[in-house]
Amino acid sequence: MSNHYKFECSSCETEYSPSPSLIECEICDSPLNIKYLPTHYSGGDNTSLEIPLPLNSQSELFSLGEGNTPTVNLTNTSALLDVNLLAKNESQNPTGSFKDRGTSILISCLLKFGIKEIVEDSSGNAGSSISAYSAAAGIKAHIFAPETAPPPKISQIKVYGATHHSTPGSRDKVTESARKYAVKHNLIYASHNLSPYFIEGTKSFGYELLSDTSHTFPTDIVIPVGNGSLYIGVYKALTELISYKLITQLPRMHFIQAESVKPIASAVYNQKWNNKMVLQTKAGGIAVGSPPRLNQVINVMKVSGGECDTVHEEEITNWQLELARTEGIYCEPTSAAAFAGTSKMIKSGKIRKGSTVLVPITGSGLKDTSPV
Amino acid sequence: MSNHYKFECSSCETEYSPSPSLIECEICDSPLNIKYLPTHYSGGDNTSLEIPLPLNSQSELFSLGEGNTPTVNLTNTSALLDVNLLAKNESQNPTGSFKDRGTSILISCLLKFGIKEIVEDSSGNAGSSISAYSAAAGIKAHIFAPETAPPPKISQIKVYGATHHSTPGSRDKVTESARKYAVKHNLIYASHNLSPYFIEGTKSFGYELLSDTSHTFPTDIVIPVGNGSLYIGVYKALTELISYKLITQLPRMHFIQAESVKPIASAVYNQKWNNKMVLQTKAGGIAVGSPPRLNQVINVMKVSGGECDTVHEEEITNWQLELARTEGIYCEPTSAAAFAGTSKMIKSGKIRKGSTVLVPITGSGLKDTSPV
Q1: b/e map A351-362, b = 16+ CB within 10 Å
Q2: Shortest CB distance from A372 goes to which of B91, B159, B367?
């Protein structure tokens, strides 16, 4: 296996040799990150940017054509909100969400380890993504999803041939069921929330901002956060770009949660939160009551000078329709939550007028229950 | 307006000044094409390819980030069929189908003419595409769709805010209703099947094959054809590339129709066909009983040395699942028809073993009724 990186605990910094079955620190149970050996990467030049990845060469990359999504200028909404609003449309990935970036690297690494069968839990997007890539890679996948997941996402998981385990109870119960199943059947638990490989894949979103926006590099990035795999991945990419001197300033990184499920926002504002307070939300992609990377998310927000906010269910639906009707973009509710939050943060002054604000279209509206 | 192109009848070659309301030859009723003035285009160089378009500059392009879709190598299916099989994944367009390429140019030109309200008819993909681009462009759209169109496509048309006219009867009846409505209300009939602008947009698919496949330029291209807007657009692009000496040989261009709706294949094989023979097909995108560009499609097939074939309903579903389960690609039934046809043509020898065959994923399976 590769020797150019290690696993490192995100909390106590204990280091480990990479392993597909290791997803938490054996000492403090915190999630793990990938740490590259110093001086291994130089950043390449402007024409061939070198992205640090847990792969030895491009030929090890297992891809279905993910990434290289367009960034579009939302001119009508920019005028409305008095900012320069950009959307990077991640619904234009192979399975219709940004998860394909993380899945590509996760599956690439699992193939290197010779893994043939995996277990994963998901509200739907990661599940369908892992189901698709596993099918193409010849890996048998067991996907645990909440029984309340939207029918199009469930169909998508099944159409790729994964075994679908419909699971009652909260999103956290689904995780618990998946972990138990993996232990019982001695299978790899390929959690997109915990595997350190997944975040290495979402980094490409951050790298692409360099070529996407050229003269209007965002001053602010607003991301809907459940577990934070995109939020943390983009932050990691931006810090790498700074270390290569390809950008000089870290954009302010803000995050949005649903009012119905707000463990991280509650922690930021020292508000009471526990799992029993979870309510149903349309934004299924961020309905995570106990996010394992909570501390990492808050750290990114603080280091980048960002803020956070929460949004109500009707704001989510309003913004989903607003974007479709004024910008021609049909996003999933999870993504609409970020736009609703952006609007709130501009009104409250958390984001300054005139800023260049980038928000991801995290997934396609076609994958969720129709709002009309 | 521009003076670097004219409209030209695809049959009698009568020329006309461009107009948004002119969609058929006033003499022989045949569809119109765009004809660029000689020597206007040189093809640019390898780094900045110049595509002839009915626009005066890049700034006139109205885009939601369409195109630049990935071409992926279907290694598992290649081994099965004994060819080098490539798929260009058009589901990775803003509204989930290749139609966005045509719509982008059509709407760009309608904006130049100052058009504010349009009528269109569609089995769903073009309707949702035109609904999205119209919303962003501030154009009011009336979309006529068959009442049997898949629910996700109807939702998508409506979510962008277009007025949806659910229409009973055959696909051709839907066209008739749309045309009557446009005449009655004195609106522009922005038909993706008839407007000469639409095909200019689908050309970009053909141009991208140059950079997509580099060392494996396809010897054969197989496209599902209803009206042929992609088939004709790709052919036009390839002939332009030949005129610029950027490719030396035209790939063989094959087309596939559903056995249930086969007006063009019937014409090729001198079989009886009339509109009353139309049967229900899952491949809604090619369910066109009286295609206005029938002669153009047959001409492309003959000039390129291509062939055609038809496929049964069960072959369509089998290939939709086959691609999902072996390649991780969830395509719409219309696209699956092309893969089913490709398989047949390889078995019958119409396509030679060892060929490099490119097939488009014309749209996302998420937009259609689920096969599971």
Answers
A1: beeebbbbbbbb
A2: B159
Looking up residue A219, the CATH number of its domain turns out to be 3.40.50.1100
Q: How far is A61 from chain B (nearest CA, A)?
A: 13
Query: Mean of the pLDDT values across residues B125-135?
Result: 97
pLDDT of A42 higher than 70: no
Q: Closest chain A residue to B134 measured between Cα atoms? A: A328
Q: Shortest Cα distance from A206 to chain B (angstroms)? A: 18
Q: Interface pTM (ipTM) of the complex?
A: 0.95
Strands (E), B90-209: 117-121, 140-146, 163-167, 188-189
Contact B327 A136 (CB under 8 A): yes
In a domain, A133, yes or no: yes
The two beta strands, A163-167 and A140-146, are parallel
Residues 6+ apart with CB under 8 A from A315: A337, A340, A344
Mean pLDDT over B237-247 rounds to 94
Which residue is it, tokens 């879709």?
B69
Regarding predicted confidence, which is higher, B276 or A48? B276
- Residue A164 and residue A140 in contact, taking contact as beta carbons nearer than 8 Å: no
Which residues form the domain of A301? 71-95+200-367
Partners of B91 on chain A (C-beta within 8 Å) are 94
- The pTM assigned to this predicted structure is 0.96
pLDDT tens digits along B357-368: 999 999 999 999
Q: How far apart are CA A342 and CA A360, in angstroms?
A: 11
B183 occurs within a structural domain: yes
